């Protein structure tokens, strides 16, 4: 752990229009169209996410689909596929886990990483953020924006600064200048109501906020007053909390040309298996492998995962047998093949489990 006097290195990562990005990745014809992922207009559906083309029409998340369609009549509404988004989220978290154990997920597509103690990339959080972004683009096929700063609230603001597909860095010596000009509405915990109250006190920026005493802020805003006092001075010592540890490790490849049959898939396994073994060497001994699994996505974009206990340890033969089993479920050509390991956690004693959905599938 770094000493208390040393500035921390926090990265906030946030995928760009996550659900929509996954849909555009899987159906490139959608990429140039305004699209929204969400419920249908006729069923009082709501937009969960929309792409940037749709945002130009004023469409945004949480908007009724019917209203979105009035704003943008050509809007393509895609029903959500949460199983797929969760799979992608797990893949993204595996990338994060390669940089630090200190990962605090905020939702399926967003997380804080504390990389203060990470030695990779010469210890540069900026280089790590770039490496994470490049890996997610290459391995997952979607873009992610990142913010680097010495605290959580600034890292989160920074990730939004150059969206989409951007990186913004606030170094420790830039904090003061950055915060000074920051509109108070950007502060963590300041919603519309508080913002209006602050504007009535002639407070627009954090610079203005600094002119108000702690006493007066507490009078007006209660507990939030102290936070405002601290945040306006760039002070935010909230730690990155580890909610979850690595649940799995996996590698996968999307093929340029779909593979025609099970034999062709099996022929690709040795290369994947070698990659998996290399990655597995970096996993510390606080994890125990409980199962192995194989994921297959077919040319019609449906996918299946077969998993099993490991009676004979981690072997190529084990994956070959999973591969055959998976192929017979689809009996068609294959565009993506992935293999992985699930862990039981020696520290918490927990078996790996699925991540909770951010909201219910309706
Ligand atoms: Mg996002």
Overall domain count: 3
What class, by secondary structure content?
Answer: alpha+beta
Write out the CATH superfamily name of the largest domain.
Reverse transcriptase/Diguanylate cyclase domain
| Secondary structure: number of strands | 12
Indicate the low-confidence ranges by residue numbers: 348-362
State the share of residues found in helices, binned by percent: 25-40%
Shape: globular
Cofactors and ligands: magnesium ion
Spatial arrangement of strands, main beta sheet: 5-6-1-7-8
CATH topology of the largest domain: Alpha-Beta Plaits
CATH architecture of the largest domain: 2-Layer Sandwich
The fraction of residues assigned to DSSP E strands is 15-25%
Order of helices and strands: EHEEHHEHEEHEHEHHHHHEHEEHE
Mean pLDDT: 88
Largest sheet: 5 strands, mixed
Radius of gyration: 23 Å
Distance between the termini: 44 Å
CATH C-level of the largest domain: Alpha Beta
User: What is the count of helical runs?
Assistant: 13
């Amino acid at each position: 752990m770094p000493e208390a006097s040393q500035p921390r290195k926090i990265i906030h990562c946030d995928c760009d229009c996550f659900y929509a990005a996954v849909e555009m990745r899987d159906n490139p014809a959608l990429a140039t169209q305004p699209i929204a992922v969400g419920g249908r207009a006729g069923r009082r559906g709501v937009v969960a996410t929309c792409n940037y083309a749709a945002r130009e029409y004023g469409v945004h998340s949480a908007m009724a689909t019917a209203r979105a369609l009035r704003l943008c009549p050509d809007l393509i509404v895609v029903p959500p596929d949460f199983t797929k988004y969760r799979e992608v989220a797990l893949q993204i978290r595996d990338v994060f886990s390669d940089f630090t154990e200190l990962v605090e997920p905020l939702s399926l597509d967003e997380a804080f990483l504390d990389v203060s103690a990470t030695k990779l990339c010469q210890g540069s959080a900026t280089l790590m953020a770039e490496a994470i972004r490049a890996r997610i683009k290459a391995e997952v096929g979607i873009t992610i924006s990142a913010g680097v700063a010495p605290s959580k609230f600034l890292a989160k603001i920074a990730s939004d600064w150059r969206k989409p597909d951007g990186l913004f860095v606030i170094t420790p010596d830039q904090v003061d200048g950055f915060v000074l000009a920051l509109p108070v509405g950007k502060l963590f915990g300041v919603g519309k109501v508080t913002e209006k109250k602050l504007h009535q006190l002639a407070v627009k920026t954090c610079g203005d906020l600094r002119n108000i005493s702690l006493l007066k802020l507490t009078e007006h805003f209660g507990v939030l007053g102290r936070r405002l006092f601290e945040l306006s001075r760039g002070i935010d010592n909230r730690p990155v909390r580890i909610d979850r540890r690595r649940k799995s490790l996996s590698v996968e490849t999307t093929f340029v040309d779909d593979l025609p049959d099970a034999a062709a898939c099996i022929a690709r396994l040795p290369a994947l298996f070698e990659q998996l073994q290399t990655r597995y060497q970096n996993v510390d001994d606080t994890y125990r492998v409980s199962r192995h699994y194989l994921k297959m996505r077919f040319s019609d974009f449906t996918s299946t995962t077969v998993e099993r206990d490991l009676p004979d340890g981690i072997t190529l033969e084990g994956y070959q047998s999973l591969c055959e089993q998976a192929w017979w479920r689809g009996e068609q050509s294959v565009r993506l093949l992935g293999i992985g390991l699930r862990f039981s956690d020696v520290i918490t004693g927990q078996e790996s489990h699925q991540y909770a959905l951010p909201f219910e599938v309706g």
